[in-house]
């Protein structure tokens, strides 16, 4: 199993807007080989700190997703988001290999 966290900070007053975007996301990733689970996490002490949690069968499945045309399409749409402050946020990515359950 392979876990990827993508953490980003948005202004606290825009957190609900970003959460709404994720509620209405395309869900294309759910069709990707090896995809297991998506969660959007909000830090309970810092409303503007959000983390995308993704669970994959393997690192190879995740890499295949990142190299896919669907991934590129989704991330190109993000760059065109009307709120350029949000569109310009660069997340911190952390990757984990599951070594015990």
UniProtKB/TrEMBL annotation:
Residue span, ABM domain: 2-90
UniProt-recorded Gene Ontology molecular function terms: monooxygenase activity
InterPro entries given in the database record: ABM_dom, Dimeric_a/b-barrel, Heme-degrading_MO
PANTHER family linked to this entry: HEME OXYGENASE (STAPHYLOBILIN-PRODUCING) 1 (PTHR34474:SF4), SIGNAL TRANSDUCTION PROTEIN TRAP (PTHR34474)
UniProt key word Oxidoreductase: yes
Keywords for the protein's UniProt record, in alphabetical order: Monooxygenase, Oxidoreductase
Keyword Cytoplasm: no
Gene3D superfamilies from the UniProt entry: 3.30.70.100
The name this protein goes by in its record: Antibiotic biosynthesis monooxygenase
The organism's place on the tree of life at top rank: Bacteria
